Amino acid sequence: MCQATQGSEAVFVFVVRGVQCLLKRRGTTFMQEQCNGVNKQGERCNGKALPDSEFCIAHDPKKVIAIAEARRRGGQARGNRSRAKRELEGAAMTASELGGILALTIRHILAGEQTPGVGQAIAALSRASLEAGKSSDLEERMSQIERRLGRQSG
What are the extents of the domains in the chain? Predict the structure, then answer.
């Protein structure tokens, strides 16, 4: 906590949960400045003003661009693409892992937490992955057979 004087008032700045708070001492009590912004109902905002502003973070005109960018990034992080990327990062999946994902997807669709379109996409990707796995297994078997035949004829 740091202290400064502003005219006849003492001003204290401290941090609560990572947010700076400003208190002004008026007489014997401390009061944090109230935001001068107006809410949707046309009433004065009940939020507390930032230390360097007369507005809270939601109403501070200096922070509009930063808040819009944070909202945009937050929306992207919650999208299906980034959610799938977080959940499915890593190496190729086994058939049983794909089966588990399909079962989980079915549950989410039945619960209304995912759309059927997402389920169709996951099913199509699972089929493609399984086919690629079969092709890979087939290629491996053929190369083993070719190696054995090469040893026998050599």
Answer: 2-59, 91-153
Q: 153 — phi, psi (to 5°)?
A: -80, -20
Sheet order of strands, 29-32 included: 2-6, 9-16, 19-26, 29-32
Rounded Cα distance, 131 and 128, in Å: 5
The string of pLDDT tens digits covering residues 10-54 is: 655 555 555 555 555 555 445 568 898 888 899 999 988 888 788
Helix ranges (DSSP H) in the chain: 64-77, 80-88, 95-110, 116-153
Q: How far apart are CA 35 and CA 44, in angstroms?
A: 8
Model confidence, pTM: 0.34
